[in-house]
């Protein structure tokens, strides 16, 4: 899933760790490096579920030492790992710290024990204040809701049951039920979280609202600004922005007010806004119907994949096709400047893939990342070929 700033979320569940004698530690190291390599060059968040780490599945000190040597500063902050090596604990957290530590924006430790807190207080003076601010202890799963949509996460049932037991033990009863007010109807000028076809100027009421434009205003304005100001910005779409600023900009759009990105002096704000707009669509731009077809792209011969991509998008509704074509045209332009911005089609696909398509139920599995990213990369790389066979009136 994504956190509230659009950063990718990596979770690690201790209860999923098998007994140490059953685990091939060499393969685990390779798996962790392979997984993290897909994310550590971008801003990301880690959620660490501590429940389930026991003497039976706790890694040995010898293996921790091996891991310490294997994971260079791309993943590990040695000043942070060293004390935990001595106590043979929290191995998983140590894996999650990249060489570019600024890319790890938040680490949430869920269901921490008192021992973890004591250890952290002992070694806190050894850690930079800036880095220490990234770590947040959360006693209950519901606390995650303030930072991300935790229902997107694949949380083990053991962790959910443990959370329920903790709540029952809290003063011997469940916490009082908080009455949630009914959701407000969307504003007439609402932009975020709306079905895409509502932006498409077919009915007169929508035409008046959108001034006859085919492309949603948020997308058109962010893309236009990034075209003029951001094509050669290194790491475009890889960086996050102030959460409060993003909320303020979204509020302005939803109220129908104008947004001048020059006022914010941060090129990453319109980039995050564009990703947030796609991510908050009730239905993905590539539609739920395309999900299984996209997952099958890896089984198609390499020479036929572009043709298969073209076939898949031909089935999109007209409004989805227009918006997708507009977006891919822009991302193709970004990739053409990769010598400056370091954002190749592959890099952009890693950022946008799961913002364009996700399953109708649950969250995308790790195995879905490869086909989703590959499909997105093909759309960007072969934009001219894939989108040359279908036109839309008024486009």
Automatic annotation (TrEMBL):
SMART domains assigned to the protein according to its UniProt record, in alphabetical order: RhoGAP, SEC14
GO cellular component terms, A-Z: cytoplasm
Name of the protein described by the UniProt record: RHG08 protein
Domain Rho-GAP stretches: 200-387
Keywords: Membrane, Transmembrane, Transmembrane helix
SUPFAM superfamilies: CRAL/TRIO domain, GTPase activation domain, GAP
Keyword Chloroplast belongs to the record: no
Lineage start: Eukaryota, Metazoa, Chordata, Craniata, Vertebrata
GO biological process assignments: negative regulation of endocytic recycling; small GTPase-mediated signal transduction
InterPro entries: ARHGAP1_RhoGAP (IPR049592), CRAL-TRIO_dom (IPR001251), CRAL-TRIO_dom_sf (IPR036865), Rho_GTPase_activation_prot (IPR008936), RhoGAP_dom (IPR000198)
Residues annotated as domain CRAL-TRIO: 1-167
Annotated Pfam families: CRAL_TRIO_2 (PF13716), RhoGAP (PF00620)
Keyword field contains Transmembrane: yes
Molecular function GO terms recorded: GTPase activator activity
Residue stretches spanning the membrane: 80-97
């Amino acid at each position: 899933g994504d956190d509230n700033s659009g950063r990718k979320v990596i979770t690690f569940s201790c209860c999923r760790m098998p007994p140490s004698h059953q685990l091939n530690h060499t393969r685990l190291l390779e798996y962790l490096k392979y997984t993290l390599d897909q994310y550590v060059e971008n801003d990301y968040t880690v959620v660490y579920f501590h429940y389930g780490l026991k003497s039976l599945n706790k890694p040995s000190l010898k293996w921790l030492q091996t891991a310490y040597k294997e994971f260079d500063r791309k993943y590990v902050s040695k000043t942070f790992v060293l004390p935990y090596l001595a106590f043979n604990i929290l191995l998983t957290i140590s894996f999650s710290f990249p060489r570019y530590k600024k890319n790890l924006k938040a680490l949430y430790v869920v269901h921490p024990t008192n021992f973890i807190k004591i250890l952290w207080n002992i070694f806190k003076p050894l850690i930079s204040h800036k880095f220490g601010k990234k770590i947040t202890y959360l006693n209950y799963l519901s606390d995650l809701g303030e930072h991300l949509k935790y229902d997107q996460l694949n949380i083990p049932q053991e962790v959910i049951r443990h959370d329920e037991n903790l709540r029952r033990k809290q003063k011997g009863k469940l916490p009082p039920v908080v009455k949630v007010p009914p959701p407000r109807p969307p504003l007439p000028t609402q932009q975020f979280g709306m079905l895409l076809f509502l932006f498409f100027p077919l009915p007169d009421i929508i035409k008046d609202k959108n001034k006859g434009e085919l492309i949603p205003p948020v997308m058109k304005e962010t893309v236009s600004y990034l075209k003029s100001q951001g094509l050669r910005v290194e790491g475009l779409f890889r960086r996050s922005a102030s959460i409060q600023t993003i909320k303020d900009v979204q509020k302005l759009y939803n109220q129908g007010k104008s947004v001048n990105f020059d006022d914010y002096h941060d090129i990453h704000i319109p980039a995050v806004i564009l990703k947030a707009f796609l991510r908050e669509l009730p239905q993905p731009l590539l539609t739920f119907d395309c999900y299984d077809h996209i997952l099958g792209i890896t089984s198609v011969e390499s020479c036929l994949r572009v043709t298969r991509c073209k076939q898949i998008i031909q089935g999109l509704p007209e409004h989805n096709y227009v918006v997708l074509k507009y977006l891919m045209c822009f991302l193709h332009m970004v990739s053409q400047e990769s010598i400056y911005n370091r954002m190749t089609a592959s890099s952009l696909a890693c950022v946008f893939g799961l913002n364009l398509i996700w399953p109708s139920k649950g969250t995308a599995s790790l195995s879905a990342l490869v086909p989703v990213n590959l499909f997105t990369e093909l759309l960007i790389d072969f934009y001219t070929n894939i989108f040359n066979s279908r036109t839309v009136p008024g486009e």
